[in-house]
Hints:
Strands 3-2-1-4-5-6-7 form a 7-stranded parallel β-sheet, sandwiched between helices. The mean pLDDT is 96. The protein has one domain (11-250): Rossmann fold, CATH 3.40.50.720. The protein is 42% helix and 15% strand. By secondary structure, the protein is α/β, with parallel strands linked by helices. The chain starts with 10 loop residues before the first strand and ends in a 9-residue tail after the last strand. The site of nicotinamide-adenine-dinucleotide has 25 residues, from helix 1 and helix 4.
Amino acid sequence: MSKLFDLTGKTAVAIGGNSVLGSSIAHGLAEHGAKVAIVGRNMEKAEEVVKAIVDNGGVAKAFQANVSERESLLQVATDIEAWSGGWDILLNAPGKNSSTPFLELEMDEYDDIMDVNLKGIIQACQIFAQKNIEQQRSGSIINISSVSSTTPLSRVFTYSVSKAALNSATQYLAKEFALHNIRVNALIPGFFPAEQNRKILNPDRIESIMKHTPMQRFGTPEELQGAAIWLASEQASSFVTGALIRVDGGFGSMTI
Ligand SMILES: NC(=O)c1ccc[n+]([C@@H]2O[C@H](COP(=O)([O-])OP(=O)(O)OC[C@H]3O[C@@H](n4cnc5c(N)ncnc54)[C@H](O)[C@@H]3O)[C@@H](O)[C@H]2O)c1
């Protein structure tokens, strides 16, 4: 069983690995033996995650990148290749959100969110996949979607549109890369509240979420690790690609 989920010798690139959810997944991958590149826009936070992984006996290094800028992604892919020779697992966790009402939405804000949540991730997939295709190296890409990607949540228009498109991109790329042995899947997390999304979660919204969550609680970031390690492992999920995996306490399977 331990061999099935053993990531020893693998390199994981965690873009947005300094985020609340991304850092938890990065910890899980490191605990299962992967060497992890923590890629963040904010180096201070990325270094903190690296320190925690290393203190826990893992191997990690921080890299800086802004996913909205192609040059920045190209540079980080080259730097990571120089560090570890390439990648085996690519976690795409950067994300932006806003609760601006639709009729007040300005296109600069729309572009800003789409640039990170969709274009940034698509560019990362393109740049990193290209490297593995050239090296004839397999890979597992894990995109972080959201419950708002299937049936949209109220109050988060652009976010919902970006995550719906990310699901589609995940499935498209699964087909595109299948014969190159690069699997592409997405995790659909439910609600994992922390400082970053407290603004959006007011008491009414929390009540409404609980009414629609069969398990009647929020998730904790550690609860994403199992699904991510499974998708990362070439042995455990060898025939899984194009899958959208819910980790949401049942939220997505409940109407009224
Ligand atoms: N927390 C939840 O309940 C929840 C639920 C579903 C999905 N998600 C998704 O999980 C992912 C992580 O979110 P989180 O909740 O941990 O929040 P977070 O605020 O901690 O993470 C967002 C991350 O995106 C990074 N980022 C933003 N713009 C960037 C850019 N231009 N270049 C590089 N990085 C950039 C930030 O630096 C940060 O690390 C996001 O994709 C989010 O949409 C979160």
